[in-house]
Design brief:
Elements (H helix, E strand, L loop, with lengths): L1 H10 L19 H8 L7 E3 L20 E6 L1 H5 L13 E5 L7 E3 L16 H4 E2 L2 E2 L12 E8 H4 L1 H4 L11 E2 L1 H11 L10 E5 L2 H8 L11 E2 L4 H7 L3 E4 L17 H10 L2 E4 L4 H10 L3 E5 L10 E3 L3 E3 L1
Parallel strand pairs: 7-9, 8-10, 9-11, 11-12
Antiparallel strand pairs: 1-15, 2-3, 4-12, 4-14, 5-6, 7-13, 13-15
Helix pairs in contact: 1-10
Amino acid sequence: MGSIEAMAARCSNWGRWGEDDVLGTLNFVDDAKRVEAAGLVRRGRAFSLAQAFDTNGPQNGWRRRTNPVHTMTDTGLEAEFGDQGFPHGFGGADDVIAMPLQCSTQWDGLGHIFDRGRAWNGRRAGAVVTSDGDQVTGIQTAAAHLAGRGVLLDVGRALVEELGLEHPELPDGFAITPEHLEATIEAQGASSAVGRGDILLIRTGQYARTRRDGWGSYAGGPSPGLSFTAAPWLHEREVAAVATDTWGFEVRPNEFDDAFQPLHQIVIPHMGLFIGEMWNLDELAAHCAADGQYDVLLSAPPLPITGAVGSPLNPMALK
């Protein structure tokens, strides 16, 4: 508790953008940053950074998180038999999907995590998120802001030799410290410099391992991820958002006994940082390793679901 209290005080952005702020670190993404990001597109190559949204996903039911259930409400058979009620042979298909908003590639919004009953900017948690949803920082408030310069730090690949890895994939339980982030930047070169307003993409390689070996305990189990000690690094560099290829962003098991996601407890309610989880960074990482360019134009807007505390998305990186 003492470590959490001290880190919260050290990394707090409460009041930085006024008492009514709903964007947190997205305030760092300004027009100039987006213009800079647009200039990174030289080849027109596009990468989807989303995992699949289907019943073969990683969810195991914890906290009622299930994989998406996709159902057809109209099909080609109804059209063939003329059961749809349209004239002149017109037919079509319709479908519906039921899913938790955080079952696959997604953003954590600012109303997702609280610290000791307080939400982002010091507000009472109960005054922010009610049974009607997030009344203040609902994910729709970020819909026009999550686009800019994305920077990939392929930590799994950068530490292959140092850790003696068979694949460019960090082992479960590996805590990524600021020193590891700096070493990755140095190894990758100038295009991976991280600064104000950047959207940071951190590849551990765990998702690649699941594609080879199966999901296993990907959802909530042991995982590589950011160390609690990385919070000041993120704060000092004024990044706008951070996304990883893991279920929970930070290292698991967590670094404190009897803890649950302590880095979340700092960066969301105190720093105002948007966190992305379960992103598919493998194809982009391979391309970056081949051409040496690790910064991209990233478009990653959440769905403007009124009052939601998270959102699925299909992030796109362009080079």
